[in-house]
């Protein structure tokens, strides 16, 4: 009786078990192993460099270390370039429009019937930037630096000892599960590639849009938007909102409206392309892809972008398997 029930509902039970495993694994990674994401990203970026060095007969450990160092140097240079460009942009805006900004603030206070003289800005700022907030910020920054550092070290060992790690995984996990994962390895790789392509497309759209709207430094701002595009919900909006507010202050309402339209257009195109690309590559309906991404992001944040579609891929394999 029990065997018949298990056989009848085998696929449903398998889907539930898979869901629980992915939920627990992702939860552990998110809250107890924060370096995981930086490790994966560093590994994916450094892997081509590592393979190239191995081809030219550089010892594996030296190749692994050099790959990590080279990627970090490139990232630092990019950050310095973007940081310098962003600082110059804000400095230019501040110096050239300080009077207009002050006038706008005064107009707001006047509209709200507030007396600027009686507002103690210093105390307000101090109430926000207090000892507790500084301590939390320092802790968060420290944790981020440590996580990134550990992620780099982990990426090095994954690069150098990947075969040993593969053997260990084969010992720990059942053979049939590993065969299914191996079968879907290409799909997982395609997911990463698709996300990179989508980021590049969004970056190009934003650069072109900013250029058409004659926004200063469209290239730097576009690259920054592209880098932030991997963050769900709060990605490119971090760049768009200040620019929109600035143009409203400057009474460039048409330009502000154009920026709003550009942001909406970029997001809509991204969602459509993401669903289309993933559904075509993974042979899954676009609606299911969108739902899986949405639920994944809601539950796990940035990790959900990958976890949601991954579950869909493995679930499809279970549902359509012959056994």
From TrEMBL:
GO cellular component: membrane
Compartmental location: Membrane
A GO biological-process term: transmembrane transport
Keywords: Membrane, Transmembrane, Transmembrane helix
Highest taxon, organism lineage: Bacteria
Pfam families: AI-2E_transport
Spans traversing the lipid bilayer: 12-29, 35-53, 65-87, 145-160, 192-213, 219-246, 253-269, 289-314
Membrane topology: Multi-pass membrane protein
Family classification: Belongs to the autoinducer-2 exporter (AI-2E) (TC 2.A.86) family.
UniProt name for this protein: Predicted PurR-regulated permease PerM
Species assigned in the record: Clostridium uliginosum
Taxon lineage: Bacteria, Bacillati, Bacillota, Clostridia, Eubacteriales
């Amino acid at each position: 009786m029990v065997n018949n029930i298990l056989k009848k509902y085998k696929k449903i039970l398998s889907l539930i078990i898979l869901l629980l495993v992915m939920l627990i694994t992702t939860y552990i990674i998110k809250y107890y192993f924060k370096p995981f994401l930086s490790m994966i990203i560093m590994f994916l970026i450094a892997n081509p460099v590592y393979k190239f060095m191995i081809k030219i007969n550089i010892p594996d450990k030296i190749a692994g270390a050099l790959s990590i160092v080279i990627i970090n140097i490139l990232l630092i240079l990019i950050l310095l370039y973007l940081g310098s460009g962003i600082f110059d942009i804000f400095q230019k805006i501040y110096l050239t429009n300080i009077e207009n900004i002050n006038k706008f603030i005064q107009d707001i206070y006047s509209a709200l019937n507030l007396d600027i003289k009686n507002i103690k800005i210093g105390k307000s700022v101090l109430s926000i930037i207090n000892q507790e907030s500084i301590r939390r910020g320092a802790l968060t920054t420290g944790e981020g630096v440590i996580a990134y550092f550990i992620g780099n070290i982990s990426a090095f060992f994954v690069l150098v000892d990947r075969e040993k790690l593969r053997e260990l995984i084969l010992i720990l996990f059942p053979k049939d599960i590993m065969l299914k994962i191996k079968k879907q390895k290409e799909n997982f790789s395609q997911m990463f590639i698709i996300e990179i392509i989508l980021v590049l497309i969004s970056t190009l759209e934003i650069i072109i849009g900013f250029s058409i709207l004659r926004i200063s430094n469209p290239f730097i701002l576009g690259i920054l938007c592209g880098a932030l595009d991997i963050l769900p919900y709060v990605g490119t909006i971090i760049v768009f909102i200040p620019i929109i507010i600035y143009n409203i202050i400057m009474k460039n309402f048409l330009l502000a409206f154009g920026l709003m339209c550009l942001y909406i257009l970029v997001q809509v195109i991204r969602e459509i392309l993401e669903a289309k690309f993933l559904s075509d590559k993974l042979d899954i309906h676009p609606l299911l892809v969108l739902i899986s991404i949405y639920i994944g992001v809601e539950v796990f944040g940035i990790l959900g972008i990958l976890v949601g579609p991954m579950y869909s891929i493995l679930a499809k394999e279970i549902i359509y398997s012959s056994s």
